[in-house]
Amino acid sequence: MGKKKMNSLEDLGGFVFSTNDDFELEEGTTEETLSPDEQYLEAHFSNKGRGGKVVTVIKGFVGTEDDLKDLGKLLKVKCGVGGSVKDGEIIIQGNFRDKVIEILEKENYNVKRVGG
After folding, report:
1. Which residues lie closer than 8 Å to 7 by C-beta, 6 or more apart?
2. CA–CA separation, 116 vs 113, rounded Å?
3. Number of domains in the chain
4. Residue 70: CA count within 13 A, CB half-sphere
5. Residues 68-80: pLDDT tens digits?
């Protein structure tokens, strides 16, 4: 196994190097969280890759990681189950798709049921 040859600065993964002591990185790509009525979420039902365990997956959230985590926490508390937030998705343990859709609609989110 050899090292991968780097051909350009992009191969470094977007790091910025500077020897200037006064350098400040500008954060121009902060993602704004859309209001609930502008969000179009998808409620999926899945058991793939989870040892046969059933989960409800919410996809399509546009916004900051903190706001996504807050929404995930709200859903977990209202359903009374565990879950996680990762890769821009909210994963709720168990088949709570209908209840999650109901909760999100009360919060003014646009939710679409996807799959069986």
Report:
1. none
2. 9
3. 1
4. 8
5. 999 999 999 999 9
pTM: 0.70
Closest alpha carbon to 100 in 61, 44, 47, 60: 44
The answer to whether residue 7 sits within a structural domain is no
Hey, is 113 helix, strand or coil? strand
| Cβ neighbours of residue 47 closer than 8 Å, sequence gap 6 or more | 53, 54, 55
Assigned token pair, 89: 């998705």
Strands (E), 1-116: 40-46, 55-59, 83-86, 89-93, 110-113
- Residue 52: domain span: 33-113
pLDDT at 20: 67
At 53, which amino acid appears?
K
Q: What is the pLDDT of residues 94-109, one digit of tens each?
A: 999 999 999 999 999 9
| Rounded distance between C-alpha atoms, residue 59 and residue 8, angstroms | 34
Identity of residue 50: R
